[in-house]
Amino acid sequence: MGDTTSPASAAGSDSTDDQGTAEPGRKRGRGKGVHRRQFLGGMAGAGIGAVVAGGATFSLLAGADEDKASAATSTATLTVPDLLEGTTSGSTTTFTLTAQSGSSEVLSGVTSTTMGYNQSFLGPTMKWTSGDTVLLNITNDIDEDTTVHFHGAHVPAKMDGGPQVAFADGETWSPTFEVKDEAKTLWYHPHALGTTAKQAVHGLAGMIIVEDDSDTSAALPSDYGTDDIPIILQCLAVGSTGDIKYDQTGYLSSGLSYPLLCNGTNVDDTTLTFAATKTRNRFRVLNASPSDIITIQRSDGGTMTQIASDQGYLAEAADVTTIRLVAGARAELVMDVTADVTLQAVITTGWIRGGSGTYDFLTVTAGGTDTPDDLPSTLNTIDRYDTSDFTARTITLGQNGATMLINGSAGTSMASMAMISTTLGAKEIWTITNATMLEHSFHVHDVPFQVISINGEDPTGVDLGWYDTFEVVGGGSIVIAMEFTDFADDTYMYMLHCHLLQHEDEGMMASLMVTES
Question: Which of 26, 379, 466, 472 could form a disulfide with 448 if both were Cys (CB 3.0 to 4.6 A apart)?
Fold first, then answer.
């Protein structure tokens, strides 16, 4: 194990390449790109230091591959991922998944080698019910080690799908646990050391819907595929022959396209359609991109009603014009569709290269004749933490050339990564400091957190919800607070890391050990 950090002294000495000065006080930016698509050879989603990595210098303009896609020229029906049927015996529901290889069209007319769960690309949606027990039989058929992490789920460390439980080709992993989460949108994806980006961009990802019996859940759309719609968005890097890129070498190769996929369908020049049969429709949006930032908005500039963040319902519904999702983040929104509405995705480059621009990715056509009731005035009771007696800790995100660091250690192996040690029942407040000029998407396994400050400013609006993944801009910082409940283990660890998957694979990951107090 690398450095074991103790409370209030976790910063340590960090080896970083100081490449400029950010604006620590700036808020998370929002903006529109060129309509439909503009490809950049530089990094639009972070500080200027992002263009220097591993000794190579990349220009934001000069020498960059640049292309602009035309407006949508066709329409197609939105594909809704299959709902995986489990088998129930007593209070245990068993789900069966196989990680497998296949092929799919990621670029129109070009076949790519892909991966998926139970299919060639992506995976089915699972529904879990709060309070039930689930058993998952997951077989590896991709010719290399893998894991399956249940992103955002509050489960025992041994069942969390981290690198310690990687399993080989031909083996089956069978985690089982009680669903302790309340209603929320989670997702599942690989999490083995050094291969997460490769396996995820090739298609190993799927959504999990947690249901509960709360009054709020009863008042919201919940008919899967009818008025409760999963939206999995991915901005990928793909060569002209269909080869999906996942590391720095691949992203710096020539002739790349950066398609946006919605539920596995390329929407570069296609706007998908969903024919609403109910007036009120709920959309669960996941940014499953390896690195790019996605902002959701309406093409007419109208409002959407956000009802949930990563970790469940907001305190009250919020009328918003944009929803910004960093890599790995989720949000839920509802719209009362009385006239056709087009949703757009604004892509901001998150890494050394990536997409940029605005897509009309989904048109929802009005067809409901019902009149829905008003939304509940209160969706959730969120008691904001009084952190005056919380244990303080600092987590520093750094780099040494192309190697990414947490608290000065590169987490490319379990032995080399920094370890954060805490105890069951501990209440902690963490300052996440970005000592790089790169964009980071900070994710913590095990428990949800509240955001206490963003670049020195108090959170407002939807940022007052519960999260497990949050943006940390180049040179910026966030302060988060959490309580470690239910699970302790002196062998198996959770992870904390940047959810830009390339950064994770390049070392920006640490372990989190929760033991009995």
Answer: 466
Tokens of 333: 């929104």
What share of the chain in percent tops pLDDT 70?
86
Please state the rounded mean pLDDT for residues 291-310.
98
Determine contact, residues 442/495, Cβ cutoff 8 Å.
no
Report which of 483, 345, 477 is spatially closest to residue 11, judged by C-alpha positions. 477
What is the average pLDDT score of the chain? 89
Q: CA 191 → CA 96, 235, 240, 259, distances in Å? A: 19, 19, 28, 24
Q: How many Å apart are CA 219 and CA 379, to the nearest integer?
A: 10
List of residues 6+ apart from 410 with CB closer than 8 A:
400, 403, 404, 416, 417, 506, 507
So what's the pLDDT on residue 73? 78
What are 229's two structure tokens?
């719609």
Instruction: Please report the pLDDT score of residue 71 as a whole number.
Output: 60
Which SS3 state, helix, strand or coil, does residue 362 take? strand
Residue 328: what residue type? G
> How large is the average pLDDT for residues 407-418?
98
In this structure, what are the phi and psi dihedrals at residue 461, rounded to the nearest 5 degrees? 60, -135
Task: For 126-136, give one letter per residue: b (16+ CB within 10 A) or e.
Answer: bbbbbebbbbb
Residues 6+ apart with CB under 8 A from 458: none
CA separation, residue 52 to residues 59, 150, 157, 398, 511 (Å): 9, 33, 36, 14, 28
- Residues 280-307, mean pLDDT to the nearest whole number: 98
- Full-model pTM: 0.89
Residue range 148-181, pLDDT digits in tens: 999 999 999 999 999 999 999 999 999 999 999 9
Do 187 and 208 form a contact (C-beta atoms < 8 A)?
yes
Nearest-CA neighbor of 506 among 433, 431, 401? Answer: 401
Give, in order, the Cα–Cα distances in Å from 116 to each of 161, 268, 371, 394. 17, 22, 39, 37
Beta bridge partners of 355: 39
Q: Report the DSSP pairing between strands 419-423 and 4-5.
A: parallel
pLDDT surpasses 70 at 197: yes
d(CA 509, CA 159): 19
Token pair for 303: 């409002």
Dist CA 6 CA 340 (whole Å): 54
Q: To which residue do tokens 């990621």 refer?
A: 106
